[in-house]
Write a structure and sequence with these properties.
The chain is α/β, with parallel strands linked by helices and 261 residues long. It has one domain: Rossmann fold (3-Layer(aba) Sandwich), CATH 3.40.50.720. The chain contains eight helices and seven strands; from the N terminus they run E-H-E-H-E-H-E-H-E-H-E-H-H-H-E. It has a seven-stranded parallel beta sheet, sandwiched between helices. Strand 5, helix 5 and strand 6 form a beta-alpha-beta unit. Helix 1 runs parallel beside helix 2, helix 1 crosses helix 8 and helix 4 packs parallel to helix 5. The longest helix has 29 residues. It is globular and about 45 Å long.
Length: 261
């Protein structure tokens, strides 16, 4: 097992890609703290599923956009057990055409996606520096960090910002043996894109034709990439992005958020 005895904090870990990351890390022997903010039932279910892999786990409620809650979360967790891996996965999207983007929608996505990632990243870094044993920080981004989609501009901007956050952290924290990388997810059918799939009927089928591997990604696909970045296999990887997107980036200039006549 690549992660036997390690502890990981996964933000937004109760569902979607976060849940997939929790389970794949657990399969490699990693103990998990499942962070959530709104659905304790799903968090407890994920904890139960993680424990079925023979590791320890518990849930912790905290809003990553609230620095005081993030600080308290790290304090409580690290008083109870060590942390070796931190996965910043919590994120939101609000579908709006650019000319209709509201300040509320802008602030909502910036606060949770970008500021939340900064909060988690800085607290993780401070902890790892104090502990003097290095650590792994992984941020879940999206191929939208490079290619924006229509009606999804603010989300794409936040993901691009997270990419640069990771690079900046990687540069300054390398001397402390802290690796910081991102996973740019492709199309994965989760709660976060339900609105998008409703707005653009037939999106799954149409996009599956565009993706060279002709399928949407799974939460397991994302989780397996996280295992690599969390393990010693990636000790010489930092400031990088792993694109787990089925080759969608090969199709430059694609337009996926369209409705066919």
């Amino acid at each position: 097992m690549k992660l036997k005895g390690k502890w990981a904090l996964v933000t937004g870990g109760s569902r979607g890609i976060g849940r997939g990351v929790c389970l794949e890390l657990a399969k490699e022997g990693c103990n998990i703290v499942v962070n959530f903010v709104s659905d304790p039932k799903k968090a407890k279910k994920t904890v139960s599923e993680v424990k079925e892999q023979g590791v320890d786990a518990y849930e912790y409620k905290a809003d990553v956009s609230d620095r005081s809650q993030v600080n308290e979360m790290f304090k409580q967790i690290t008083e109870k057990n060590k942390l070796d891996i931190v996965v910043g996965n919590a994120g939101v999207v609000k579908m709006q055409p650019f000319l209709e983007v509201t300040k509320q929608a802008w602030d909502f996505q910036m606060k949770i996606n970008l500021e939340g990632s900064f909060n988690i990243g800085q607290e993780a870094a401070k902890y790892f520096v104090r502990r003097k044993k290095g650590g792994k920080v992984i941020f879940m981004t999206s191929f939208n960090q490079e290619v924006p989609n229509g009606s999804q501009g603010v989300y794409s901007i936040t993901k691009s910002g997270i990419k640069m956050l990771a690079k900046s952290m990687a540069l300054e924290l390398a001397e402390h043996n802290i690796n910081v990388n991102t996973i740019a997810a492709g199309a994965v059918a989760t709660d976060i894109n339900v609105e998008q799939r409703k707005m653009f009927p037939g999106l799954i089928e149409r996009l599956s034709k565009i993706i060279p591997l002709h399928r949407w990604g799974t939460v397991e696909d994302m989780g397996k990439a996280a295992v690599y970045l969390a393990s010693s296999d990636s000790d010489y990887v930092t400031g990088s992005t792993i694109f787990v997107e089925g080759g969608i980036m090969i199709n430059n200039g694609m337009m996926i958020n369209i409705v066919e006549d």
